[in-house]
Amino acid sequence: MSSILTQEKTEFSRGLLAGTSIAIGYLPAAITFGLLAKGTGLSFFESMAMSMFVFAGAAQYMALNLIAIGTGAFEIIFTTFIVNIRHLLMSASVNEKVENAHPLTKAIYSFGLTDEVFAVTSTQEGKVKTGFIIGVAVMAYASWVLNTGVGYLMGSALPQSLQESMAIALYAMFIALLIPSLKKQRKIVWLAISAAILNSFLSLFIPSGWSIILATLIASTAIEYIRPKKGVS
Amino acid sequence: MNMTMLVIIAGMAIVTYIPRMLPLTFMDSLPIPPWLQAILKNVPYAALGALIFPGILTAHENVLFSLIGALTAITAAYLGANLIIVVLSSILMLMTLTLIF
Known about the structure:
The complex is a heterodimer of chains A (233) and B (101). Chain A is mainly alpha-helical and 233 residues long.
């Protein structure tokens, strides 16, 4: 029993460590959110509550825009749903990747399944342990919530050039997660490039949440039929 | 807290949580055919491609700067640099460009 506990603890620590890059990437995004929320007229507690309970960067930014132009609650919630529907696909994919666990445990950690937590866990080698994914999610969550507060209270103190430059952090992290896999399998190159091209095209016509989900689905499915070999191992 | 804001935050929280939670919690009780499993295993790499592009072009208001930042990250990652080094090097490159030009 104690060895199982020790193992879980080690996996949790490994998760925290793997989540550090997300924490760095969230730092500017959350600070900017806090800053913008203040500018939009939200109170400190409203801004913090949004980051604590919603925990979805793109949707939160979009909500601020809509609140600023006086959009109603229903439209804001519906837009959030559209933007976050892509997580349905990510959650299904992560389910193929994680070790078995009680549905309640999965229901709890699924709260933390942002794009970035999904990206870090699903690019791990082999089955992902529950402790690991919780560690990644806790690290990401802590950074998002704490830095929302920092942004609200003192975001405007950061130099503009630094704020602008840090917006690339999360994309750079996605690149860093993708490249090692690209080097291993030719198939992954085609998956990533075709989804990127499809997304560029589709996003001209439909909201970005749908565009990402459609591009991902089409690329993931088409490659199975164009190159009928086994899935990514 | 303002009542409308409370409704907005609660509503946003629910519609964000449900898509994240449903497949992870309930898919194990459904039989997943092998073809679907194969597709789901492709999803991470396709999703990363879609999450990176074209979004990365808007990381900086100057598209050229964004592209150079992206190339810096790609080069660093290709050379096998640690995740955090990749992230920091692209930020540093973008900041240098912003300060010079």
